[in-house]
Amino acid sequence: LLGFILFCFSNNCNEQETTVIKGIIEDSLSKKPIPYVNIAEKGSAVGVSANEEGVFQLSTSSADFDSVSFSALGYHTLILGMRDLVQNSTGLINLSPVAYSFPEVVIIRP
Q: Is the overall model pTM greater than 0.70, yes or no?
């Protein structure tokens, strides 16, 4: 099932701890998957993108990060701590849409 978050801890050849985070990202209102969301360790350059169905998998061997950032155009960025991700047994990550308001634009023809 893709609708869950799984945390696996294993040792690689360098004896570093590897963490794997899996899940699906969806719109909090429509409940539809959001494609190509950026998922990254907060404060680092390590990250991945969700696929066209909102499914992602982030693997890291960094012991220094404590939160993950989820961002997509048209949505509020969501930052979840590792504790929150562990407690999320469904694996569904909900992003809230954001509405941008721009001032009125008047076009004058010469």
A: yes
